[in-house]
Amino acid sequence: MCASFQGDAFLPQPALEELIRASPCAQIVRGQYKTPTFLVHGTSDDLISWKQSQGTYEALVMKGVLSGLAIVEGAPHICDLSSNPESEGWKAMLKGYDFLSAALDLSSSAAAGCSI
């Protein structure tokens, strides 16, 4: 198994069970992840491929987890920091807020006293 390099020392990789415990994907596949989830990802992300969000979304759907996905064409890694309400990243985040509002049923009288 590969070791991580940090400075002048190699660090051992965590045990497989530790990785599984910390992995959202592993929790989804095992059916232990139930939280409504909305993913936003830019296609020009140079750190993480947008296909990872697509795959995560598909796994959530297959496991029956309420989920949504917005792929923002040409957007970088942090596409939701725009201060322009006309930007696609901004619009994607609004879709996410609408999704979460509906998932949490924030229109109900029980949620009337809540603020987010």
TL;DR of this structure?
With 116 residues, the chain is an alpha+beta fold. The protein has helices at 16-22, 24-29, 50-62, 88-103; strands spanning 4-6, 9-11, 37-42, 67-72. The radius of gyration is 18 Å and the shape is globular.
Describe this structure in words.
- β3, α3 and β4 (about 65-70) form a beta-alpha-beta unit.
- This protein has one domain: Rossmann fold, CATH 3.40.50.
- Residues about 110-115 have low confidence and may be disordered.
- It has helices at about 15-20, 25-30, 50-60, 90-105, and strands at about 5, 10, 35-40, 65-70.
- About 35% of the residues lie in helices and about 15% in strands.
- It is an alpha+beta fold and about 120 residues long.
- The protein has four helices and four strands.
- The protein is globular, with a radius of gyration of 18 Å.
Descriptive terms for the model:
4 strands, alpha+beta, 4 helices, disordered C terminus, 116 residues, single chain, two-stranded parallel sheet, two-stranded antiparallel ribbon, Rossmann fold
User: Roughly what is the average pLDDT, rounded to an integer?
Assistant: 85
Structural class: alpha+beta
Q: Which stretches are poorly predicted, pLDDT < 50 over at least 5 residues?
A: 109-116
The biggest beta sheet is recorded as: 2 strands, antiparallel
Name of the CATH superfamily: Alpha/Beta hydrolase fold, catalytic domain
Instruction: Work out the helicity level.
Output: 25-40%
Overall, the morphology is globular
